[in-house]
Structure formats: structure tokens, C-alpha cells
Automatic annotation (TrEMBL):
Protein name in UniProt: Dirigent protein
Family per record: Belongs to the plant dirigent protein family.
Source organism of this protein record: Ilex paraguariensis
Protein purpose: Dirigent proteins impart stereoselectivity on the phenoxy radical-coupling reaction, yielding optically active lignans from two molecules of coniferyl alcohol in the biosynthesis of lignans, flavonolignans, and alkaloids and thus plays a central role in plant secondary metabolism.
UniProt lineage: Eukaryota, Viridiplantae, Streptophyta, Embryophyta, Tracheophyta
Keyword tags: Apoplast, Secreted, Signal
Family matches, as InterPro entries: Allene_oxi_cyc_Dirigent (IPR044859), Dirigent (IPR004265)
GO cellular component: apoplast
Length: 190
């Protein structure tokens, strides 16, 4: 169990760049979305946090499968976690909810921590309500900064391509609970 907690801790060495942006009026406010439409393609930048909770009464990430050797593997090779994580505008769990990350991640590396991640990031507010994008990517979890691939989307993000720059905001080594930030850049065509 201690190895699983360690693997989960290493899984979420992911965070975005700081979310605070200075507005045109000079005030500092958290802005989680920005769109630039040039008439041919639209570039959207989203900055948000997801809260991956493995402990407590209502965890948002649960182990659904593992290989026989997972418990003896230094990387947790073969473990598969299913997630339904809330997405917020700031690392505070009580900050504004903007959507949910749903999908799975699993340890795919035998000698180094390498996670396969397939997740859908669905949004619930404003012009993004009902839209989503999907990542399907290898996450080299020990790298301090990682680039994850965006492979598609729905709604306003239909035919999206792009990437996520990710880093960990916080990680509890005892529970494996993590708050993870993403800075996503999506390109869609008109």
C-alpha cells in the first residue's frame, strides 16, 4: 500500500504556470480562459486545477485494476486508476467549479514512472458549457514540466488539437491526494 501511495504521489508531479493574470484595468484576478479568434482558427488558453482525491468517504480516483506484480514494482507497473475529478479556477477546492476530468491513468513503465493518461475534460460554464477536450498521452511523471497531447474535443472544441503544460501544485504523501494544475492550449478551426 505504501508503494501505491508513492506511485500516486509521483503520478501527479504536474502543474500549470501561475493562474493570476493582470486585467486591463490593472487588477489581479484569476482568469481561467482566453480565446483568440482570427477568422481561420481559434486559439484558446485554459488554466485550471483538478482535485484528485484517493482517500476519504468519497474519493474522486479509485483503483480499478492491477497486475500481479504491481505491489512489488518500484513504479506500480500495471495499476489502473479511474477518475472523476472536479476542475476549479484556483487550487482552493472551494474556488469556482468549471468542469470535471473523467477518465483513467495507469502505470505503464517498468523501470521509470511513465503514466498512460486518457481523460476527458468537460466544462460547465459560459461559452464552454457542454464542451470538452480529451488527452491521450504518455506522462513521464518524474519530469518537473511535462507536455501532454490534446487529441480532440467536442462542442466549441470540436476538432481541437493542442497541448497541456503540467506540474503538481500539491501532493499529500500519506493519502496520495493531489491538486494538479493545467495550462491547456487548444487550436480549433472555424
Amino acid at each position: 500500500m505504501a508503494r501505491l501511495a508513492m506511485v500516486v504521489m509521483l503520478i501527479f508531479l504536474v502543474i500549470t504556470m501561475p493562474l493570476a493574470q493582470t486585467q486591463e484595468d490593472g487588477s489581479d484576478q484569476v482568469s481561467w480562459a482566453n480565446r483568440n479568434d482570427n477568422g481561420k482558427e481559434t486559439v484558446t488558453n485554459l488554466q485550471f486545477y483538478f482535485h484528485d482525491t484517493l482517500s476519504g468517504k468519497n474519493p474522486s480516483a479509485v483503483r480499478v485494476a492491477q497486475a500481479n506484480q504491481t505491489n512489488t514494482s518500484p513504479t506500480g507497473f500495471g495499476v489502473l486508476m479511474m477518475v472523476d475529478d472536479p476542475l476549479t479556477v484556483a487550487p482552493d477546492p472551494n474556488s469556482k467549479l468549471v468542469g470535471r476530468a473523467r477518465g483513467f491513468y495507469g502505470s505503464a513503465g517498468q523501470t521509470e514512472l511513465a503514466l498512460i493518461m486518457v481523460m476527458n475534460f468537460g466544462f460547465t460554464g459560459g461559452i464552454y458549457n457542454g464542451s470538452s477536450f480529451t488527452i491521450a498521452t504518455l506522462n513521464p511523471a518524474l519530469n518537473p514540466v511535462r507536455e501532454l497531447s490534446i487529441v480532440g474535443g467536442t462542442g466549441i472544441f470540436r476538432l481541437a488539437r493542442g497541448y497541456v503544460i503540467a506540474r503538481t501544485y500539491s501532493l499529500d504523501p500519506t493519502t496520495g491526494n493531489a491538486i494538479v494544475g493545467y495550462n491547456a492550449t487548444l487550436v480549433t478551426f472555424i
